Amino acid sequence: MGVSFTLGQLAEALGATLEGDRHRVVRGVASLEQAGPEHVSFVTASRYVKSAVQSGAAALVVGREVTGLPQALLRVDSTQTALIALLRLFHPERPVTAGVHATAVVETGARIDSSASVGAGAVVEAGAVVGARSRVGALCFVGAGAVLADDVVLHPRAVVHAGVVVGHRVTVHSGAVLGADGFGYAFDGTAHRKIPQVGGLRIADDVEIGANSTIDRATVGDTVIGRGSKIDNLVQVGHNCEVGEDVILVAQVGISGSCTIGNRAILAGQVGIADHVRVGEGAILTAQTGVPSDVEAGQVMSGTPCRPATLTRRIWAAETMLPELVRKVRALEKRVRELEENPGD
Amino acid sequence: MGVSFTLGQLAEALGATLEGDRHRVVRGVASLEQAGPEHVSFVTASRYVKSAVQSGAAALVVGREVTGLPQALLRVDSTQTALIALLRLFHPERPVTAGVHATAVVETGARIDSSASVGAGAVVEAGAVVGARSRVGALCFVGAGAVLADDVVLHPRAVVHAGVVVGHRVTVHSGAVLGADGFGYAFDGTAHRKIPQVGGLRIADDVEIGANSTIDRATVGDTVIGRGSKIDNLVQVGHNCEVGEDVILVAQVGISGSCTIGNRAILAGQVGIADHVRVGEGAILTAQTGVPSDVEAGQVMSGTPCRPATLTRRIWAAETMLPELVRKVRALEKRVRELEENPGD
Amino acid sequence: MGVSFTLGQLAEALGATLEGDRHRVVRGVASLEQAGPEHVSFVTASRYVKSAVQSGAAALVVGREVTGLPQALLRVDSTQTALIALLRLFHPERPVTAGVHATAVVETGARIDSSASVGAGAVVEAGAVVGARSRVGALCFVGAGAVLADDVVLHPRAVVHAGVVVGHRVTVHSGAVLGADGFGYAFDGTAHRKIPQVGGLRIADDVEIGANSTIDRATVGDTVIGRGSKIDNLVQVGHNCEVGEDVILVAQVGISGSCTIGNRAILAGQVGIADHVRVGEGAILTAQTGVPSDVEAGQVMSGTPCRPATLTRRIWAAETMLPELVRKVRALEKRVRELEENPGD
Questions:
Q1: Burial (0-12, 13-18, 19+ Cβ within 10 Å), C113
Q2: CA neighbor of A158 nearest in space, from A148, A150, A168
Q3: Partners of residue A121 in chain B, C-beta under 8 Å
Q4: Residues of chain A with pLDDT under 50
């Protein structure tokens, strides 16, 4: 909306080497396909160079080595990092006015930092703490004694239950539920009796949690999400899990109770993990993988039940031959029977 | 509740040919199994004729060709279309009073059409537009600059984030989150850095979105849901996806970022699609299918990884023989070895 | 927080036989790994005895037969039942003050029992009933004519739609949506026309429903969840399903429309069930199982498509040999061809 920069200004802001007209003005960022003469676009991987040639963009953010492009170029060491800066230039975060909205309900004994904000219709119970510059969005619920550290963002309608501890710079998207009861029952021969879920949930610094995801509190002790981990939408993390640092949980992943997920592990979409499983550091589980037992550090696993991805790929390739294989074995049996019956024939 | 019709009135309203007593009164619609002498029921497919014979219903809505039923019959060309009309007759939509509830928070600069309604506790931010006859349910959130066209229904506690554009006659069910950030990070060697998600989300006319589903805004440009598409509960649509027209996404489907789903495609429950995949027009993906790469128009695909459904069915049939096949091959190897060792024996 | 008991008091409260110092004081319950000298811990299965030996707990709740543990012991008949009682001793449920919060919106004609509570920002529409001691959490929505029986707990931000009937002692977690429209359309050649979802939803006594789960109302008649069933987070139950008694639905299970799930069936995480399927009493479906057709009572099923778990395990074992099997069959074909070509050789 009215934001514009010259290519010279962009080069300076991004630490880029400019090849092109310093004075040319651009007014927005767009994808290679949608960019016009007022846009800057970006080539974050060499496989996109071909579409870049045909892009109508005025200028492109590219790596140091890219050649053959007709547009003005902003050369950088890391196109991903530059893209982040570029988007923030054109789309600065909206400033938030500190203070508690008149319609919010803040119970006596809750402590809201004077630089924090609490949105319309939000509810903050007694004993809860909202740290410096943190934002509790409209219609959020923050339960008794929950702690939001500094620079936390709860998007509208997030729920943080009683006693949950949320670290610095954590972002929680709309509809996420942090600290609901874990799923624990004991069948006593007559009925499933609920095991009280009296433990906690601790979210470390720099975590992001997607829309409508659910992370349960522990039975006793704490469920833990480690520093820097990023969780997509509609993900389920069961009670007493310990998710490590810089872990990636893609949409619709489900992790049963008491699992340990190692640092920097990546669980792709719809992966399911059985309870009490340990996934090692840096392990990668491809989409829809089902994990019944421990996965060692650094392994890349696929399939249900999961196996090393290279083996799974070979199994998948062989599967397409399986109907034919059944036929072949039948034919072989017949031929061998004939050979057996007519040995010297 | 007190609504009743004679079969004659129903025949007229549905454009049906009545075989039975015009003056008989019915007071509700029920399934074949649950219908009593005060009910009208329906036979929407020939496989239900057998249970229809035993139904206690006073009358049945049936196709032109059905025979052998003892009840009064309302014959129509399309039983499905007639069923829709029949249900609306007995269950007219509740009228909604226009106006903004006293407890709703409508920020200055939001434009609410005088025929629209905003429910209790709802929050509508500055610059948002709510069109003619649209209904913002209780406890909904409509972000800054979001646009709801005419006759939109947001059920209680839906979230429409800033700038999202929602077409005419769109229905959004409770808990759905439209326009949360896409899941985009760049790992810089130290941490996952968030790529600002500054794009938009456009929902075309006549779309329906289920409870607790999540549709993310684009990184740049727009995520798009095409006209007439129907999305069930707990579905995830990633950033920058383009979902076509009249597409069906059944519950718990997950679509990764930057996918294109062709018009009239059907994705059954729990299907997962990898990122940047194109699913062609009219393709059908059966339940739980995992789609790693493009699917051509009109294809019916099953399994993970997905293959043409006919092949997958043959693989599944052969799989049940697989343990036996391993045994057979071992036996064959032994017999061939014996033949080789005793050639002329 | 300040709650403490002597082991003698605990023995009495739990009906346990104490082996140890009656006067020793403990101040909390912790897991074997995290317990210190102020804690009591528990050994709920014999496989945990090994870690129990090394636990720093002052005392352990154990079964009658466990031996070789150095800590004070509280011997009980059922460790699970004792654990429930133990957790409730140290963590009594927070008392709830009866009454309607000043910011709640209760429409005229809703009946709230004088012992019930309605939280901040909650909305209860006309004709709804909230029974004795029931609690409607903050920001919940209870639609017109919905009925909550006695001792119901709606956690903050749950949604109970119009006309839904909720039994005694039902617990609904945050974000759950009870009674949204089922997913029903008829394609008329031009568009998917919505089939009005005018039926109901009945939740029987003692049911628990997890965070962000969705249970749809019926097209006509009722969707039913039977007494004592426990539903985890992010579960989808489609319209017109009949879920039996004491059923377990683990996180992210998806049940299509018109299914019948027998009493005491267990559906593990991410299981998917096709529409109109009957799952028999006591059947067990392991995680990620895909169920295209009926499952008999008592069966244990795995895989997609599901098969008896014993067969599926054998198939999974054989699959790892499949690439090798393809190679072996090729080799066999060559050898048999040679035998055929050189019969008496």
A1: middle
A2: A148
A3: 105, 121, 123, 139
A4: 1
Give me chain B's average pLDDT, please: 96
Nearest residue to B299 (alpha-carbon basis) of B315, B313, B314, B282: B282
Q: Which chains touch C (3 or more CB pairs under 8 A)?
A: A, B
**How far A254 CA sits from the closest chain C CA (Å)?**
7
Q: What whole-number distance in Å separates Cα of residue B163 and Cα of residue B180?
A: 11
The single residue listed with the structure tokens 């789903």 is B261
Q: Is the dihedral of CA A81, A87, A88, A93 positive or negative?
A: negative
The radius of gyration of chain A from alpha carbons, rounded to an integer in Å, stands at 27
Record: contact A156-B175, CB cut-off 8 A: no
Closest partner CB to A87 (pick from B198, B319, B329): B198
User: Which of B91, B119, B325 is facing C196, going by the closest CB pair?
Assistant: B91
Q: Which two tokens stand for residue C56?
A: 């720093």
Q: How far is CA B101 from CA B105, B118, B145, C105, C143, in A?
A: 9, 6, 20, 10, 16
Does the beta carbon of A103 lie under 8 angstroms from any beta carbon of chain B? yes
**Confidence at B343, pLDDT banded by 50, 70, 90:** low
Q: Is the pLDDT of residue B1 over 60?
A: no
Judged by a CB distance cut-off of 8 A, whether residue B322 touches chain A is: yes
Q: Which one of A155, A183, A288, A322 makes the best mutation probe of the C interface by having the most chain C beta carbons within 10 Å? A: A183
Among B214, B317, B344, beta carbon nearest to A234: B214
Which residue has tokens 């996918």? B259
Which residues 192-221 on chain A approach chain B with CB closer than 8 angstroms? 206, 208, 210-212
User: Would you give the end-to-end CA distance of chain C in angstroms?
Assistant: 89
Work out the average pLDDT over C200-204.
98
Annotated catalytic residue A39 = no
What chain B residue is nearest to C138 in terms of C-alpha separation?
A: B139
Q: Is A135 exposed, middle or buried (0-12, 13-18, 19+ CB in 10 A)?
A: buried
Q: Quote the pLDDT of residue C160.
A: 98
A92-117 b/e with 16+ CB inside 10 Å = b?
eeeeeeeebbebbbbeeebebeeebb
Say how many residues make up chain C: 345
Q: Which residues pair with B27 in a beta bridge?
A: none
Q: Give the C-alpha separation, B312 to B11, whole Å.
A: 46
Judged by CB atoms closer than 8 Å, whether chains meet at B156 and C175 is answered as no
Q: Is B299 helix (H, G, I), strand (E, B) or coil?
A: coil
Mean pLDDT rounded to a whole number for chain A = 96
Nearest to C211 by CA among C182, C179, C239, C252: C252
Buried b (16+ CB within 10 A) or exposed e, B309-335: bebbbbbbebbebbbebbebbeebeeb
Q: DSSP character for B190?
A: S
The backbone torsions φ and ψ at residue A313, rounded to the nearest 5 degrees and listed phi first, read -60, -40
By CB neighbour count within 10 A (0-12 exposed, 13-18 middle, 19+ buried), where does C88 fall?
middle
Strand partners, A61: A42, A74
Angle between helices A322-341 and B309-319 (to 10 degrees): 50
Rounded to the nearest 10 degrees, how much is the dihedral formed by the CA atoms of B307, B311, B312, B318?
-140
ipTM over 0.85: yes
Binary contact (B180, A251; C-beta < 8 A): no
Amino acid occupying residue A208: E
Q: Provide, rounded to the nearest whole percent, the portion of chain A with pLDDT above 70.
A: 99
Query: In what helix (H) or strand (E) does residue B222 lie, and over which residues does it extend?
Result: strand B222-225
Type of residue found at A245:
E
Nearest to C332 among B326, B333, B344 (CB): B333
Residue A11: Cβ within 10 Å count? 22
